[in-house]
Amino acid sequence: MDLSVMFFGADDASTVGHATKYEDILAITRAADRLGFTAVWTPERHFQQVGQVFPNPALLSAALAVATERIHVRAGSLVLPLHHPLRVAEDWAVVDNLSRGRAGVSVATGWHSKDFVLAPDGFADRRERAARDIGLLRRLWAGEAVEFTDGTGERVAVTPQPRPYSAALPLWTTTSGSPATWEAAGRLRTNILGATIGQTREELAGKIRLYREAYEAAPEQPGAPARGTVTLMAHTYAGVSDEQARRLAGGPLKAYLKSYVAQTAANNAANKGADGRTDELTDGQLDTLAEFAFQRYLTWGSLLGSAQTCRKSLADLADLGCDEVACFVDFGLGVDEVLAGLHRLAELRENI
């Protein structure tokens, strides 16, 4: 099984500054590169506390590409309906050249209407746009001239430049858990980026089977591998013992979960035009939900514990059909703890 590093943080950078956060990301990525991790994933987020230092994965991936030697640099995720596919092809071709073929992109549809101030016309049909533009992105990456409307209203054929280093761009579809998205990813013959959070082991096993069956039945797609990669994000800290790992990770992770739940409730209210009551959870209610989620993670779905505990969790995910675990590390731990945890994971990685 492959192990990667996922950044998805929610901590407030106001006390230390965003520049320090970028320094930490670079330090962690360089260490992951030296330790043999497969990839580093950075998300696209706008106007929120969650992921406030990640507005542009292509820009950050370009910096990470020149700071590393072998680790793959991937968007996890890129909100495709916010962008013209030509722009995506151009930006990631730069990353692909800078990294000598280490670029990859997971496509998301977007989840919050406020994000779409960047592309107001793209919100209502964002799922259809994302599915359509995946095929278009593959054609553009392959060097095919595609017609678009220019500034005078005329249709003109354009080929994006620069040309990428790789013949095909590795593509994932991001899912928040819907079985329909797992199946759609299979039909499109993309890899899939999901998470262990919010579902049981049995539910996840069923979704992986659904994806594999859809992928096998789908027609071949340009640049798509014969078998798709299932990548799962899991909150991760490998400690010297279970007790130490849970003691160090417990406070930061519960604070992160509290922030995430509050933001999700507010987003759901905004997207659905609700009356705002879901945005009025009390601190006590948020604390209860965060504690419940944390205790559930200790039972299943996280890499929180000793190296031996993490080994068992990884073996279980491999049995389910997971090919890669994206280790979500920036949920509030200090950079020194994150680096120490990565070293412990690297020691057991070869035996998984």
From TrEMBL:
Pfam families, per database record: Bac_luciferase
This protein's GO CC annotations: cytosol
Top-level lineage group: Bacteria
UniProt domain Luciferase-like: residue ranges: 5-323
A GO MF label: oxidoreductase activity, acting on paired donors, with incorporation or reduction of molecular oxygen
Family annotation (Gene3D superfamilies): Luciferase-like domain (3.20.20.30)
Protein name as catalogued: LLM class flavin-dependent oxidoreductase
UniProt lineage: Bacteria, Bacillati, Actinomycetota, Actinomycetes, Streptosporangiales
